Amino acid sequence: MANERILVVEDERIVARDIEKRLKKLGYVVPITVASGEEAIKQTAEIRPDLVLMDIQLKGELDGIEAAEQIRADFNIPVIYLTAYADEATLQRAKATEPFGYILKPFDARDLQVAIEVALRRRISEEAIRVALEKERELSELKSRFWSMAAHEFRNPMTSILSAAQLLEQEKHDLPEERRREYLYVIQNAIRSMDQLLSDVLAVGRVEGGSLKFDPAPLDLEEFCQIVVEEMQFNAGLKHRIVLHQQGDCAQTFLDKKLLRHILTNILSNAIKYSPEGNDIYFELICADETVIFQVRDTGIGIPVEAKNHLFEPFQRAENVGNIPGTGLGLTMVKRCLDLHGGQISIESNPGGGTIVTIQLHLNSRVKSRQA
């Protein structure tokens, strides 16, 4: 290792200069040397060194052990103690702070280098373990939330299907055609909800597992968006009208069709779901300067300010959604697909004032396929 920054805490000026000289000769950077525990804490907060060499016996209100304990707790920066001699009680206090090593005075350059290298490698290992454990904790939490959400979200459409099927069976001989179509619509809509839930969960799972790939190919974006709008309009029925407006030449692009379908269907689905019945959904497709912009605008319930920082987290839903069904996975999937595509998303929204979602991609993204 080289160029690591080491803070030296030593109240003997000659010793401090000697340590600084040795460290620089070994290739380390010494931004500053300090002589007290209080100054050590202050400088650690300001310069965030990779390691602190701390003399145990320091003048001032804080000795080296007290300063090291605070540095470890507040900044999680490794500390190596420098000591010539300490009684048993002092050594026990030092051990309690979980130091990354001890160097006994007097020491040579080799002792110094070995202690520092061991401490730095231990820090890297501990950080890797911490990240892995945090990831495992997050995955465990997501699994728990998924099963809770899935049980709830599947129960609603299944109940609708069962109820409608029972009514069709009970009234099959004298059921008016209009009522029969109504029951069939309930069943179809419930099945679509379950299918969307499964699609979102499986897609997010593929992204998290690294199996969802970015695979761009030639795509007539005008035709593709028209097909997506027709499909979404069919699902929306007469409750909403999706208005598609196009600017520029979007016929010859190089994009990932599968990822783009996930992106657009989720954004349009949200606009439909959270807008009052009868309100139009506006979909802008703009192609210019090697860039494509998709903008979906609705006049729905909007997004509360406190929910905006969590929009792309799995299973997160704003408090104002009420009884509107949803999984909280749609925008998570959108963000993952955009990341694979190298795209950007911005969302403008206020409670009760509707939402504008703007997505930007490169028109001809001939980027080599890669995994999440």
From TrEMBL:
InterPro entries reported in the protein's UniProt record: CheY-like_superfamily, HATPase_C_sf, HATPase_dom, His_kinase_dom, HisK_dim/P_dom, HisK_dim/P_sf, Sig_transdc_His_kin-like_C, Sig_transdc_resp-reg_receiver
Enzyme Commission designation: 2.7.13.3
Domain (Response regulatory) ranges: 5-120
Gene Ontology molecular function: ATP binding
The UniProt record lists the keyword Phosphoprotein: yes
Key word Chloroplast present: no
Catalytic activities: ATP + protein L-histidine = ADP + protein N-phospho-L-histidine
Keywords, in A-Z order: ATP-binding, Kinase, Nucleotide-binding, Phosphoprotein, Transferase, Two-component regulatory system
Gene3D superfamilies, per database record: 1.10.287.130, 3.40.50.2300, Histidine kinase-like ATPase, C-terminal domain (3.30.565.10)
SUPFAM superfamilies: ATPase domain of HSP90 chaperone/DNA topoisomerase II/histidine kinase, CheY-like, Homodimeric domain of signal transducing histidine kinase
Record PTM 4-aspartylphosphate, positions in chain: 55
Domain Histidine kinase: 149-365
One Pfam family cited in the UniProt record for this chain: Response_reg
Name of this chain's protein: histidine kinase
Annotated source species: Trichocoleus desertorum GB2-A4
